[in-house]
Design a protein that fits this description.
This protein has 403 residues and is of the alpha/beta class. The chain has 13 helices and 16 strands. The longest helix is centred in the first third of the chain and has 22 residues. Bound molecules: 2-keto-3-deoxygluconate and magnesium ion.
Length: 403
Protein backbone atom coordinates (compact mmCIF):
# COMPACT_ATOMS: atom_id res chain seq x y z
CA UNK A 1 0.00 0.00 0.00
CA UNK A 2 1.15 3.53 -0.80
CA UNK A 3 1.07 4.90 2.72
CA UNK A 4 1.20 8.48 3.95
CA UNK A 5 4.25 8.32 6.17
CA UNK A 6 4.99 11.88 7.12
CA UNK A 7 3.46 15.31 6.70
CA UNK A 8 4.64 18.85 7.27
CA UNK A 9 3.22 22.33 7.07
CA UNK A 10 5.56 24.91 5.58
CA UNK A 11 4.82 28.58 6.31
CA UNK A 12 6.84 31.03 4.26
CA UNK A 13 6.67 34.68 3.21
CA UNK A 14 8.49 35.21 -0.10
CA UNK A 15 6.86 38.61 -0.67
CA UNK A 16 3.61 37.46 0.98
CA UNK A 17 2.55 34.63 3.27
CA UNK A 18 1.90 31.15 1.91
CA UNK A 19 1.06 27.94 3.77
CA UNK A 20 1.91 24.66 2.04
CA UNK A 21 1.22 21.09 3.09
CA UNK A 22 3.71 18.42 2.05
CA UNK A 23 2.69 14.74 2.27
CA UNK A 24 5.42 12.10 2.04
CA UNK A 25 4.75 8.41 1.27
CA UNK A 26 6.53 5.18 2.18
CA UNK A 27 7.64 4.89 -1.47
CA UNK A 28 9.37 8.26 -1.53
CA UNK A 29 6.77 10.01 -3.73
CA UNK A 30 5.48 13.20 -2.20
CA UNK A 31 2.75 15.69 -3.01
CA UNK A 32 2.10 19.29 -2.03
CA UNK A 33 -1.05 21.32 -1.49
CA UNK A 34 -1.76 25.03 -1.00
CA UNK A 35 -3.28 25.89 2.41
CA UNK A 36 -3.15 29.70 2.24
CA UNK A 37 -6.05 31.69 3.69
CA UNK A 38 -5.18 35.36 3.39
CA UNK A 39 -4.92 37.08 6.79
CA UNK A 40 -5.83 33.85 8.67
CA UNK A 41 -2.85 31.73 7.60
CA UNK A 42 -1.88 30.33 10.99
CA UNK A 43 -5.40 29.11 11.75
CA UNK A 44 -5.13 26.69 8.81
CA UNK A 45 -1.57 25.71 9.75
CA UNK A 46 -2.80 24.84 13.26
CA UNK A 47 -5.85 22.98 11.95
CA UNK A 48 -3.56 20.88 9.78
CA UNK A 49 -0.85 20.29 12.37
CA UNK A 50 -3.04 19.65 15.38
CA UNK A 51 -6.18 18.10 13.93
CA UNK A 52 -5.59 16.64 10.47
CA UNK A 53 -2.04 15.35 10.21
CA UNK A 54 -2.39 12.88 13.13
CA UNK A 55 -5.30 11.24 11.24
CA UNK A 56 -3.42 11.03 7.94
CA UNK A 57 -0.37 9.03 8.97
CA UNK A 58 -0.73 5.42 7.83
CA UNK A 59 -3.64 6.11 5.43
CA UNK A 60 -3.65 4.88 1.83
CA UNK A 61 -2.47 7.83 -0.29
CA UNK A 62 -4.52 6.56 -3.23
CA UNK A 63 -7.87 6.86 -1.44
CA UNK A 64 -8.52 10.50 -2.22
CA UNK A 65 -12.32 10.37 -2.10
CA UNK A 66 -12.43 8.41 1.13
CA UNK A 67 -9.92 10.75 2.76
CA UNK A 68 -11.98 13.76 1.65
CA UNK A 69 -15.14 12.27 3.16
CA UNK A 70 -13.25 11.26 6.29
CA UNK A 71 -12.04 14.82 6.86
CA UNK A 72 -15.36 16.46 5.92
CA UNK A 73 -17.96 14.17 7.50
CA UNK A 74 -15.62 12.76 10.07
CA UNK A 75 -14.80 16.08 11.72
CA UNK A 76 -18.49 16.55 12.59
CA UNK A 77 -17.85 20.36 12.20
CA UNK A 78 -18.27 20.88 8.47
CA UNK A 79 -17.64 23.73 6.05
CA UNK A 80 -16.06 27.11 6.77
CA UNK A 81 -12.94 28.62 5.23
CA UNK A 82 -10.42 27.17 7.69
CA UNK A 83 -11.71 23.59 7.52
CA UNK A 84 -12.22 23.62 3.76
CA UNK A 85 -8.80 25.18 3.05
CA UNK A 86 -7.16 22.52 5.19
CA UNK A 87 -9.11 19.74 3.41
CA UNK A 88 -8.19 21.33 0.07
CA UNK A 89 -4.49 21.19 0.92
CA UNK A 90 -4.69 17.46 1.68
CA UNK A 91 -6.74 16.83 -1.46
CA UNK A 92 -4.32 18.74 -3.73
CA UNK A 93 -1.34 16.93 -2.25
CA UNK A 94 -3.02 13.51 -2.75
CA UNK A 95 -3.93 14.30 -6.37
CA UNK A 96 -0.33 15.43 -6.88
CA UNK A 97 0.88 12.08 -5.53
CA UNK A 98 -1.54 10.14 -7.72
CA UNK A 99 -0.41 12.04 -10.81
CA UNK A 100 3.24 11.41 -9.99
CA UNK A 101 2.63 7.69 -9.45
CA UNK A 102 0.73 7.49 -12.76
CA UNK A 103 3.42 9.66 -14.36
CA UNK A 104 0.67 11.87 -15.81
CA UNK A 105 -0.32 15.52 -15.45
CA UNK A 106 -3.56 15.81 -13.49
CA UNK A 107 -5.61 16.95 -16.46
CA UNK A 108 -5.08 13.50 -17.97
CA UNK A 109 -6.57 11.90 -14.88
CA UNK A 110 -9.55 14.27 -15.21
CA UNK A 111 -10.36 13.01 -18.71
CA UNK A 112 -7.77 14.81 -20.80
CA UNK A 113 -7.77 18.27 -22.36
CA UNK A 114 -11.02 19.93 -23.41
CA UNK A 115 -9.05 22.89 -24.82
CA UNK A 116 -5.48 23.75 -25.74
CA UNK A 117 -5.01 26.70 -23.42
CA UNK A 118 -6.58 28.58 -20.56
CA UNK A 119 -7.73 32.17 -21.12
CA UNK A 120 -6.75 34.39 -18.21
CA UNK A 121 -7.49 37.92 -17.06
CA UNK A 122 -5.30 40.34 -15.14
CA UNK A 123 -6.13 43.46 -13.12
CA UNK A 124 -5.62 46.88 -14.68
CA UNK A 125 -5.96 49.59 -12.08
CA UNK A 126 -5.08 53.21 -11.49
CA UNK A 127 -5.92 56.13 -9.25
CA UNK A 128 -7.76 57.83 -12.12
CA UNK A 129 -9.63 56.75 -15.24
CA UNK A 130 -6.64 57.95 -17.28
CA UNK A 131 -4.23 55.78 -15.29
CA UNK A 132 -6.50 52.72 -15.55
CA UNK A 133 -6.89 53.29 -19.30
CA UNK A 134 -3.11 53.32 -19.64
CA UNK A 135 -2.84 50.12 -17.61
CA UNK A 136 -5.39 48.37 -19.80
CA UNK A 137 -3.08 49.30 -22.70
CA UNK A 138 -0.15 47.67 -20.87
CA UNK A 139 -2.11 44.44 -20.44
CA UNK A 140 -3.12 44.51 -24.10
CA UNK A 141 0.57 44.89 -25.00
CA UNK A 142 1.29 41.80 -22.88
CA UNK A 143 -1.19 39.89 -25.05
CA UNK A 144 -4.17 39.65 -22.66
CA UNK A 145 -7.61 39.10 -24.20
CA UNK A 146 -9.46 39.77 -20.95
CA UNK A 147 -8.76 42.52 -18.42
CA UNK A 148 -10.37 43.49 -15.13
CA UNK A 149 -10.55 47.28 -14.73
CA UNK A 150 -10.72 49.13 -11.39
CA UNK A 151 -10.21 52.80 -10.70
CA UNK A 152 -9.87 55.23 -7.80
CA UNK A 153 -13.04 57.19 -7.03
CA UNK A 154 -12.85 61.01 -6.69
CA UNK A 155 -13.43 61.94 -3.06
CA UNK A 156 -12.36 58.53 -1.67
CA UNK A 157 -8.79 58.25 -0.46
CA UNK A 158 -8.51 54.55 -1.30
CA UNK A 159 -10.62 52.16 -3.31
CA UNK A 160 -10.73 48.39 -3.58
CA UNK A 161 -8.54 47.04 -6.36
CA UNK A 162 -6.31 50.08 -6.79
CA UNK A 163 -2.80 49.20 -5.73
CA UNK A 164 0.74 50.41 -6.19
CA UNK A 165 1.78 47.10 -7.75
CA UNK A 166 0.45 46.73 -11.23
CA UNK A 167 1.11 43.08 -12.09
CA UNK A 168 0.80 41.71 -8.54
CA UNK A 169 -2.15 42.17 -6.25
CA UNK A 170 -1.44 42.53 -2.57
CA UNK A 171 -4.17 44.04 -0.42
CA UNK A 172 -2.92 42.47 2.85
CA UNK A 173 -0.80 45.50 3.53
CA UNK A 174 -0.35 45.92 7.27
CA UNK A 175 0.33 44.11 10.55
CA UNK A 176 -3.05 45.43 11.75
CA UNK A 177 -5.98 46.12 9.39
CA UNK A 178 -5.90 49.51 7.64
CA UNK A 179 -9.25 51.31 7.51
CA UNK A 180 -10.79 52.50 4.23
CA UNK A 181 -13.82 54.77 3.78
CA UNK A 182 -16.50 53.87 1.25
CA UNK A 183 -19.24 55.80 -0.55
CA UNK A 184 -21.64 53.86 -2.75
CA UNK A 185 -23.01 57.09 -4.24
CA UNK A 186 -19.59 58.32 -5.41
CA UNK A 187 -18.73 54.87 -6.75
CA UNK A 188 -21.95 54.42 -8.74
CA UNK A 189 -21.57 57.87 -10.30
CA UNK A 190 -18.01 57.24 -11.43
CA UNK A 191 -17.71 53.65 -12.67
CA UNK A 192 -19.77 53.95 -15.90
CA UNK A 193 -17.35 56.70 -17.05
CA UNK A 194 -14.45 54.26 -16.74
CA UNK A 195 -16.05 51.71 -19.04
CA UNK A 196 -17.21 54.33 -21.51
CA UNK A 197 -13.62 55.58 -21.73
CA UNK A 198 -12.23 52.06 -22.15
CA UNK A 199 -14.66 51.14 -24.92
CA UNK A 200 -14.02 54.48 -26.67
CA UNK A 201 -10.29 53.86 -26.58
CA UNK A 202 -10.03 50.10 -27.15
CA UNK A 203 -13.30 49.07 -28.78
CA UNK A 204 -15.17 45.84 -28.10
CA UNK A 205 -12.60 43.19 -29.03
CA UNK A 206 -11.20 42.90 -25.52
CA UNK A 207 -13.17 41.30 -22.67
CA UNK A 208 -13.58 43.76 -19.79
CA UNK A 209 -14.42 42.67 -16.24
CA UNK A 210 -15.13 44.58 -13.04
CA UNK A 211 -15.10 43.59 -9.35
CA UNK A 212 -17.49 45.36 -6.95
CA UNK A 213 -16.05 43.43 -3.99
CA UNK A 214 -19.36 42.88 -2.17
CA UNK A 215 -20.10 46.58 -1.67
CA UNK A 216 -23.61 47.11 -3.03
CA UNK A 217 -27.16 46.20 -2.09
CA UNK A 218 -29.06 44.11 -4.65
CA UNK A 219 -31.02 47.06 -6.05
CA UNK A 220 -27.85 49.17 -6.33
CA UNK A 221 -26.18 46.27 -8.10
CA UNK A 222 -29.12 46.02 -10.48
CA UNK A 223 -28.69 49.70 -11.27
CA UNK A 224 -24.95 49.34 -11.88
CA UNK A 225 -25.46 46.29 -14.09
CA UNK A 226 -27.99 48.25 -16.14
CA UNK A 227 -25.73 51.31 -16.43
CA UNK A 228 -22.89 49.09 -17.65
CA UNK A 229 -24.92 47.19 -20.26
CA UNK A 230 -23.81 49.40 -23.18
CA UNK A 231 -20.16 48.43 -22.43
CA UNK A 232 -20.90 44.68 -22.56
CA UNK A 233 -18.83 43.45 -19.64
CA UNK A 234 -17.59 39.87 -19.58
CA UNK A 235 -18.75 39.90 -15.97
CA UNK A 236 -19.64 42.00 -12.97
CA UNK A 237 -18.10 40.31 -9.95
CA UNK A 238 -19.26 40.11 -6.33
CA UNK A 239 -21.87 42.81 -6.86
CA UNK A 240 -23.32 42.04 -3.43
CA UNK A 241 -22.25 39.87 -0.56
CA UNK A 242 -23.66 36.42 -1.32
CA UNK A 243 -24.52 35.48 2.26
CA UNK A 244 -28.09 35.59 1.04
CA UNK A 245 -28.18 33.78 -2.29
CA UNK A 246 -31.65 35.19 -3.04
CA UNK A 247 -30.13 38.67 -3.40
CA UNK A 248 -29.06 37.74 -6.89
CA UNK A 249 -32.65 37.26 -8.00
CA UNK A 250 -33.27 40.97 -7.60
CA UNK A 251 -30.13 41.86 -9.57
CA UNK A 252 -31.14 39.48 -12.36
CA UNK A 253 -34.55 41.14 -12.63
CA UNK A 254 -32.86 44.41 -13.59
CA UNK A 255 -29.89 43.62 -15.78
CA UNK A 256 -28.46 41.28 -18.41
CA UNK A 257 -24.86 42.10 -17.43
CA UNK A 258 -23.32 38.67 -16.69
CA UNK A 259 -22.71 38.01 -12.99
CA UNK A 260 -19.83 36.23 -11.26
CA UNK A 261 -19.43 35.34 -7.61
CA UNK A 262 -17.80 32.78 -5.35
CA UNK A 263 -14.18 33.56 -4.48
CA UNK A 264 -15.00 33.23 -0.78
CA UNK A 265 -17.26 30.18 -1.17
CA UNK A 266 -16.16 26.97 0.49
CA UNK A 267 -18.69 24.38 -0.62
CA UNK A 268 -21.36 23.62 -3.18
CA UNK A 269 -23.91 24.56 -0.55
CA UNK A 270 -22.75 28.20 -0.77
CA UNK A 271 -23.86 28.39 -4.40
CA UNK A 272 -26.51 25.70 -4.76
CA UNK A 273 -29.41 28.14 -5.34
CA UNK A 274 -27.31 30.61 -7.31
CA UNK A 275 -26.52 27.84 -9.78
CA UNK A 276 -29.77 25.92 -9.77
CA UNK A 277 -31.87 29.04 -10.31
CA UNK A 278 -29.41 30.36 -12.90
CA UNK A 279 -28.88 33.55 -10.94
CA UNK A 280 -25.22 33.72 -11.94
CA UNK A 281 -23.17 33.11 -15.06
CA UNK A 282 -19.76 32.31 -13.56
CA UNK A 283 -18.81 30.50 -10.38
CA UNK A 284 -15.50 31.74 -8.95
CA UNK A 285 -14.82 29.13 -6.26
CA UNK A 286 -11.27 27.86 -6.48
CA UNK A 287 -9.26 24.83 -5.48
CA UNK A 288 -7.72 26.05 -2.24
CA UNK A 289 -10.80 27.56 -0.58
CA UNK A 290 -13.45 25.14 -1.85
CA UNK A 291 -12.25 21.79 -0.59
CA UNK A 292 -9.70 20.95 -3.26
CA UNK A 293 -9.99 19.39 -6.69
CA UNK A 294 -12.37 16.70 -5.48
CA UNK A 295 -14.99 19.19 -4.35
CA UNK A 296 -14.39 21.86 -7.01
CA UNK A 297 -14.95 19.28 -9.75
CA UNK A 298 -18.26 18.47 -8.09
CA UNK A 299 -19.23 22.16 -8.09
CA UNK A 300 -18.24 22.51 -11.76
CA UNK A 301 -20.22 19.44 -12.80
CA UNK A 302 -23.29 20.75 -11.00
CA UNK A 303 -22.80 24.18 -12.61
CA UNK A 304 -22.53 22.61 -16.06
CA UNK A 305 -26.12 21.35 -15.75
CA UNK A 306 -27.28 24.97 -15.53
CA UNK A 307 -25.00 26.60 -18.13
CA UNK A 308 -22.87 28.22 -15.45
CA UNK A 309 -19.19 28.39 -16.32
CA UNK A 310 -16.15 28.59 -14.06
CA UNK A 311 -13.90 31.57 -13.38
CA UNK A 312 -11.53 30.48 -10.63
CA UNK A 313 -10.16 33.06 -8.24
CA UNK A 314 -6.46 33.59 -8.91
CA UNK A 315 -5.25 36.69 -7.07
CA UNK A 316 -1.64 36.82 -5.86
CA UNK A 317 -2.58 35.35 -2.44
CA UNK A 318 -3.43 32.02 -4.08
CA UNK A 319 -0.11 30.25 -4.25
CA UNK A 320 1.50 28.82 -7.40
CA UNK A 321 0.49 25.39 -6.03
CA UNK A 322 -3.17 26.38 -6.23
CA UNK A 323 -2.59 27.85 -9.70
CA UNK A 324 -0.98 24.63 -10.96
CA UNK A 325 -3.92 22.61 -9.65
CA UNK A 326 -6.48 25.09 -11.03
CA UNK A 327 -4.93 25.05 -14.50
CA UNK A 328 -5.09 21.25 -14.69
CA UNK A 329 -8.76 21.54 -13.73
CA UNK A 330 -9.45 24.46 -16.14
CA UNK A 331 -8.02 22.74 -19.16
CA UNK A 332 -9.96 19.53 -18.57
CA UNK A 333 -13.50 20.54 -17.61
CA UNK A 334 -16.17 21.18 -20.27
CA UNK A 335 -17.65 24.34 -18.72
CA UNK A 336 -14.51 26.40 -18.18
CA UNK A 337 -15.07 30.17 -18.56
CA UNK A 338 -11.93 32.07 -17.63
CA UNK A 339 -9.11 31.95 -15.04
CA UNK A 340 -7.96 34.94 -12.99
CA UNK A 341 -4.18 35.34 -13.05
CA UNK A 342 -2.34 37.86 -10.95
CA UNK A 343 1.36 37.18 -11.10
CA UNK A 344 3.61 36.28 -8.21
CA UNK A 345 6.73 38.12 -7.13
CA UNK A 346 10.08 36.75 -8.30
CA UNK A 347 10.83 35.54 -4.73
CA UNK A 348 7.59 33.53 -4.76
CA UNK A 349 8.42 32.04 -8.14
CA UNK A 350 11.81 30.95 -6.78
CA UNK A 351 10.28 29.19 -3.78
CA UNK A 352 7.65 27.47 -5.95
CA UNK A 353 9.16 26.22 -9.24
CA UNK A 354 6.34 25.35 -11.62
CA UNK A 355 5.56 23.78 -14.98
CA UNK A 356 2.85 26.26 -16.05
CA UNK A 357 3.65 29.27 -18.19
CA UNK A 358 1.98 32.38 -19.61
CA UNK A 359 1.94 33.21 -23.29
CA UNK A 360 -0.06 35.91 -25.06
CA UNK A 361 -3.03 36.01 -22.70
CA UNK A 362 -3.20 32.28 -21.99
CA UNK A 363 -1.77 29.96 -19.34
CA UNK A 364 -0.58 26.46 -20.14
CA UNK A 365 -0.40 23.91 -17.29
CA UNK A 366 2.64 22.06 -18.69
CA UNK A 367 3.05 18.29 -18.76
CA UNK A 368 4.82 17.51 -15.50
CA UNK A 369 3.26 14.66 -13.52
CA UNK A 370 0.79 15.80 -10.85
CA UNK A 371 -0.08 19.50 -10.73
CA UNK A 372 3.43 20.45 -11.80
CA UNK A 373 4.38 22.70 -8.87
CA UNK A 374 7.06 22.06 -6.25
CA UNK A 375 8.41 23.84 -3.18
CA UNK A 376 12.07 24.59 -2.49
CA UNK A 377 12.16 24.15 1.27
CA UNK A 378 15.60 25.67 1.74
CA UNK A 379 14.56 28.85 -0.05
CA UNK A 380 11.24 28.87 1.83
CA UNK A 381 13.18 28.98 5.13
CA UNK A 382 14.75 32.29 4.11
CA UNK A 383 11.34 34.03 4.30
CA UNK A 384 9.77 33.81 7.77
CA UNK A 385 6.05 34.46 8.29
CA UNK A 386 4.98 38.09 8.70
CA UNK A 387 1.58 38.93 10.09
CA UNK A 388 -0.45 40.78 7.46
CA UNK A 389 -4.14 41.73 7.41
CA UNK A 390 -6.60 42.63 4.68
CA UNK A 391 -8.05 46.14 5.14
CA UNK A 392 -11.46 46.87 6.66
CA UNK A 393 -14.03 49.27 5.25
CA UNK A 394 -16.28 51.88 6.90
CA UNK A 395 -18.95 54.26 5.64
CA UNK A 396 -18.37 58.00 6.17
CA UNK A 397 -20.44 57.90 9.39
CA UNK A 398 -18.17 55.25 10.85
CA UNK A 399 -20.41 52.18 10.27
CA UNK A 400 -18.61 48.99 9.30
CA UNK A 401 -19.14 48.02 5.67
CA UNK A 402 -17.97 45.07 3.57
CA UNK A 403 -14.39 45.35 2.35
O1 LIG B 1 -7.46 37.73 -0.30
C1 LIG B 1 -8.44 38.51 -0.89
C2 LIG B 1 -8.13 38.76 -2.35
O2 LIG B 1 -7.77 37.58 -3.00
C3 LIG B 1 -9.33 39.36 -3.05
O3 LIG B 1 -9.57 40.63 -2.49
C4 LIG B 1 -9.05 39.48 -4.52
O4 LIG B 1 -11.30 40.08 -5.03
C5 LIG B 1 -10.23 39.62 -5.38
C6 LIG B 1 -10.08 39.15 -6.74
O5 LIG B 1 -11.08 39.15 -7.45
O6 LIG B 1 -8.99 38.78 -7.14
MG1 LIG C 1 -12.87 39.46 -6.42
Amino acid sequence: MLEIKEAKVIVTCPGRNFVTLKLMTNEGVYGIGDATLNGRELAVATYLNDHIIPCLIGRDAHQIEDTWQYLYRGSYWRKGPVTMTAIAAVDMALWDIKGKVANLPLYQLFGGKSRDRVMVYGHANGRTIEETTEQVGTYLDLGYHAIRAQTGIPGLSSTYGVSKDKLFYEPADSSLPTENIWSTEKYLDHIPHLFQRLRDQYGFDVHLLHDVHHRLTPIEAGRLGKLLEPYRLFWLEDAVSADNQESFRLIRQHTVTPLAVGEIFNTLWDCQHLIQEQLIDYIRATVVHAGGLTHLRRIADFAALYNVRTGCHGATDLSPVCMGAALNFDIAIPNFGIQEYMRHLPETEEVFPHAYHFEKGFLYPGDSPGHGVDIDEEKAKQYPYQRAYLPVNRLADGSMHNW
